[in-house]
Specification:
30% of the residues lie in helices and 23% in strands. Bound molecules: adenosine-5'-monophosphate-propyl ester (PRX). Adenosine-5'-monophosphate-propyl ester binds at residues 214, 259-260, 332-336, 354-359, 379, 441, 443, 455, 458, 464, 469.
Length: 577
């Protein structure tokens, strides 16, 4: 039976009154100044994310409320209250200060999902440092590139990750003064001996707080700079898009090595004073259903790849569990197929609410909110404080597309608090992201007559695999380091579960012949350099790669040929196709 295009919300069915009963009305009445009034600010003036996230509650009625419930890979859960998290992060801040970390220094954090990660990130923010969280599945190469681009002064990691990822490139990161291994006896001693109080550095709303790396089509990763003032947007979007209420048990499944895991796995839920679930383990269908049930998760923020993996695991596993407490489910990071929205309705008893944002936007911009009717396949509507348009670029400006259902580029009116303030050291690249007042997202979308936005695709060659953005250039560079490789071109190949998998095409230097053994060698080389999250899953050999006359590899053509699609405009192709 065909499914209806709309999932209607019945106000009588809400278990708690949604924070945003009428998105359109709230948008008309909203101002960022009023949203900022909900923040406390530092005693004596200034704004610091860690104060809003932790200290404010630690010195108030929520001091003994559980901030984080940590589920280790094996063993019993551990609860960390707001008061405890304040003490733990203060100790970390004292240790960092003792190592000479001052306002503006870059502190990189490469840990799995362990309690020390949260203390380290919040402690570094308290010091006024700029925090750059790294994904623990990054190999040595992406790590080194980022630490060097960001001039990292301290790297916080674990013994195991140090041995596997850091040690071999440590000498190639000249700005690093200290590597703190949180489970190493010396660091443990330092932390235990550190005072449990700390006066938060007097940062202001425009002082940098986070450096989040993201990937473009060309060149090395871009370090998007985010400021302490962003917390106003994290708080507002936590309220509007995730519908957080004080007694919620919230689970954001994203790793804090990516911006979703910091903005919505650390900042937003803590700023709301709710309890967050932190699961150290990797995805496992049975474990995830058990978490939802046994932890009494009320609000769940996850990703399309995870949902598709649950769908793939089958309904029998799901039927063993019940989710009476769950009341709101949202997803981000890649297109959410209508099938997945309906799966939520059938298996969890709730539709999945898709929302959209980017590393550059710092927080959720477009969302299906709790009270809105859901159109499966749509990203929803712009949140209060966000103005979104569909445009066509033209020489010297933009043409705003008013006609509904017309494809164009998604743009946002600049000025929301969590907007990135620059790409570190790349002023020109930053400037190119704007046309007048508008921030150009690089995503293609359309808006329907009811004001819902629909994702169409990306305007560039960046790859989205399991929700993670991967720059083809970074992968190509690592492959080119192999002595057999003459040239490399990397594309995203559509995949039913993870969205896209990284596929590389390589041509070989004279004296090397394609073959299974070399393919395995190249796969292993890439995996060792880049780590599992970034390395290609497939490698194909080619005589030569198609290039433009200016010498750029035509990834689009590689992709079209891979998919058997029309090859498009080949007028810039160099030589015979
Ligand atoms: O292409 C869009 C896709 O992910 C990109 C942003 O990636 P990243 O910076 O890693 O984002 C981290 C925070 C989510 C976007 O430009 N994307 C994000 N959300 C959606 C999406 N594509 C389709 N539907 C979405 N809901």
């Amino acid at each position: 039976m065909p499914r209806p295009p709309l999932i209607r919300k019945d106000p009588a069915g809400f278990r708690v009154a949604p924070n945003l009963p009428d998105t359109d009305a709230a948008r008309a009445a909203f101002s960022w100044d009023s949203a900022r009034a909900g923040l406390q600010g530092l005693p004596g003036g200034g704004l610091n994310i860690a104060h809003e996230a932790v200290d404010r509650h630690a010195h108030g009625p929520r001091a003994n409320h559980v901030a984080l419930r940590w589920l280790p890979v094996a063993g019993a859960a551990r609860d960390i209250t707001y008061a405890q998290l304040a003490r733990d992060s203060n100790r970390f801040a004292n240790v960092l200060r003792g190592l000479g970390v001052v306002k503006g220094d870059a502190v990189f954090v490469l840990c799995g999902r362990i309690p020390q990660l949260y203390a380290a990130v919040l402690g570094a923010l308290k010091c006024g440092a700029v925090v750059s969280p790294m994904f623990s599945a990054f190999g040595p190469e992406p790590l080194k590139t980022r630490v060097n681009l960001g001039a990292g002064k301290v790297l916080v990691t674990t013994d195991a990750l140090y041995a596997r990822r850091v040690k071999k490139v440590e000498a190639e990161m000249p700005t690093l003064r200290h590597v703190l291994r949180v489970d190493d006896p010396e660091t443990r001693g330092l932390l235990e001996g550190a005072p449990e109080s700390f006066t938060v550095e007097r940062t202001g709303a425009e002082d940098p707080a986070f450096l989040h790396f993201t990937s473009g089509t060309t060149g090395m990763p871009k370090g998007a700079v985010h400021v302490h003032g962003a917390v106003a947007a994290h708080y507002a979007t936590g309220r509007f898009a995730l519908d957080l209420h004080p007694e919620d048990v919230f689970w954001c499944t994203a790793d804090p090595g990516w911006i979703t895991g910091t903005s919505y796995g650390i900042v937003a839920p803590l700023a709301h004073g709710v309890t967050s679930i932190v699961d150290e383990a990797e995805f496992d269908a049975e474990r995830w259903y058990r978490n939802l049930q046994d932890q009494g998760v009320t609000v769940w923020y996850t990703a399309p790849t995870a949902i598709r993996l649950l769908m793939k695991a089958g309904a029998d596993i799901a039927r063993k569990y019940r989710f009476p407490k769950l009341r709101f489910v949202a997803s981000v990071g890649e297109p959410l197929n209508p099938e997945a929205v309906w799966w939520g309705q059938e298996v969890l008893g709730l539709p999945i609410h898709d929302n959209w944002w980017q590393t550059e936007t710092g927080g959720i911009m477009i969302a299906n909110t709790a009270a809105m009717d859901v159109k499966p396949g749509s990203m929803g509507k712009p949140l209060p404080g966000i103005e979104a348009r569909i445009v066509h670029r033209r020489e010297g400006g933009l043409d705003v597309v008013d006609a509904p259902d017309t494809e164009g580029e998604l743009v946002l009116r600049a000025g929301w608090p969590s907007m990135f303030r620059g790409y570190l050291g790349q002023e020109e690249r930053y400037r190119k992201c704007f046309a007048g007042d508008w921030y150009l997202t690089g995503d293609l979308a359309r808006r329907d007559a009811d004001g819902y936005f629909w994702f169409v695709g990306r305007a560039d060659d960046v790859i989205k695999s399991a929700g993670h953005l991967i720059g083809p250039f970074e992968v190509e560079s690592a492959l080119m380091e192999h002595p057999a490789v003459a040239e490399a071109g990397v594309i995203g190949k559509p995949d039913p579960v993870v969205g896209e998998v990284v596929k590389a095409f390589v041509s070989l230097k004279a004296g090397f012949a394609p073959g299974e053994e070399l393919r395995m060698q190249l796969l292993a080389h890439a995996r060792k350099r880049l780590g599992a999250a970034v390395a290609p899953k497939e490698i194909a050999f080619a005589e030569a790669l198609p290039r433009t006359r200016s010498g750029k590899i035509m990834r689009r053509l590689l992709k079209a040929r891979e998919l058997g699609l029309p090859e498009g405009d080949l007028s810039t192709l160099e030589g015979p196709a």
